């Protein structure tokens, strides 16, 4: 029995796999943290962009209201 281990100590293999799992878990946790940070920054930038877009639209509306209307000229056909 134990042919699948090819003479290696199963506990050494198990320990090696456990160490790899722990390293992968750490890497995953760091990736999740990085992702959360990037998502927060993106949401902040989008919110600021939306505010600027609203300010720009308001400025355009105010400018449009302050432009005096030209008197209508009769059509000359």
Automatic annotation (TrEMBL):
GO cellular component, one term: mitotic spindle pole
GO MF annotations in UniProt: gamma-tubulin binding; microtubule binding
Taxonomy, superkingdom: Eukaryota
An annotated GO BP: microtubule bundle formation
Entry-linked InterPro entries: CDK5RAP2 (IPR042791)
Protein name: CDK5 regulatory subunit associated protein 2
Source organism phylogeny: Eukaryota, Metazoa, Chordata, Craniata, Vertebrata
């Amino acid at each position: 029995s134990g042919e699948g281990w090819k003479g290696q100590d199963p506990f050494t293999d198990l320990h090696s796999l456990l160490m790899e799992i722990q390293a992968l878990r750490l890497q995953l946790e760091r990736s999740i943290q990085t992702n959360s940070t990037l998502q927060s920054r993106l949401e902040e930038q989008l919110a600021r962009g939306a505010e600027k877009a609203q300010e720009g639209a308001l400025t355009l509306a105010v400018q449009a209201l302050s432009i005096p209307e030209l008197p209508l000229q009769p059509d000359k056909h």
